Amino acid sequence: MASNVNPTVRRRRLGQELRRLRELKGMTAEEVAERLLVSQSKISRLENGRRSISQRDVRDLCGVYEVEDQRIVDSLMQMAKDSRQQGWWHAFGDIPYSVYIGLETDAESLRVYEPQIITGLLQTRAYAEAIIRGGSPEASEADNDKRVEVRLRRQGRITAETEPLRLWVVLDEASLHRIVGSRPVMREQLEHLVEMSQLPHITVQVLPFEVGAHAGINGQYSILEFADAADSSVVYIEGVTSDLYLEKPLDVQKYTVMYEHLRAQSLNVDQSRQLIERVAKEYAR
Question: CDD domains per the record (predicted)?
Fold first, then answer.
């Protein structure tokens, strides 16, 4: 059973439980750090699931929180052990957004706003290769090839025969007109986008130029939701040197409302598909 555990999600659940135990004890992260002679940032990283948690960490924290039920301690220790296993993406080496991949792998639904490019889960190989090489000109060919393979492997979540990821994408019209790779690459990409948009669990809308200023003007973001009620929704914002994960309910709610505005301002599904088809034909000329 442990081999099928998603380590990223396991760390999140364990971190949430450790935070709950700390709050029940009425202690601050700073107080816990002082007791264990570690930094406050370590306690915070353990609780938000961004850092691997050792069984020793769990044992020490349970001691500080005076957890008397050995069954609880044993359960948390097992979660710590499971969380240190490797997901499929670790076979590709050091992936900068591995935390996100872990979350996406376990998510039930994903809402994405993309202002510049076609979102990764809907990219063709040729388009992905052009995007990755263009965005990382200093990287080696081997590293770029690895990133392409990871991106294509991630797409298994939306092509799975059972319980595929429910995907809702809002694309800025600019992403249809930005020539990535070549005109033939763009035509293939947009035809693929039309095909994927017809799947029952995938929705694609286009935010037209004529809208002007809109709720997503500050840039790309994604909202991940999970089937297990114990896993809170996450807003993911990709950065150049680091990524941002927002899990506080008020933050998630704000981005969710923004997304609803984007959906309302976008063309409906049929209009969006017609626009994509029209632009794809233009690339054939």
Answer: HTH_XRE (cd00093)
Same domain, 41 and 77: yes
Instruction: Tell me: pLDDT of 50 over 80.
Output: no
Cα 151 to Cα 125: distance, rounded to the nearest angstrom: 9
Candidate from 16-20, 130-134, 161-165 with smallest mean pLDDT:
16-20
Same domain, 106 and 139: yes
* Tokens matching residue 197: 């948009």
CATH assignment of the domain containing 152: 3.30.870
φ and ψ at residue 284, rounded to 5 degrees:
-85, -10
Same domain, 66 and 150: no
Would you say 208 and 150 are in contact if contact means Cβ atoms under 8 Å apart? no
Are 124 and 214 contained in the same domain?
yes
Taking a C-beta distance cutoff of 8 angstroms, is the pair 48, 59 a contact? no
pTM of the prediction?
0.77
pLDDT at 3: 37
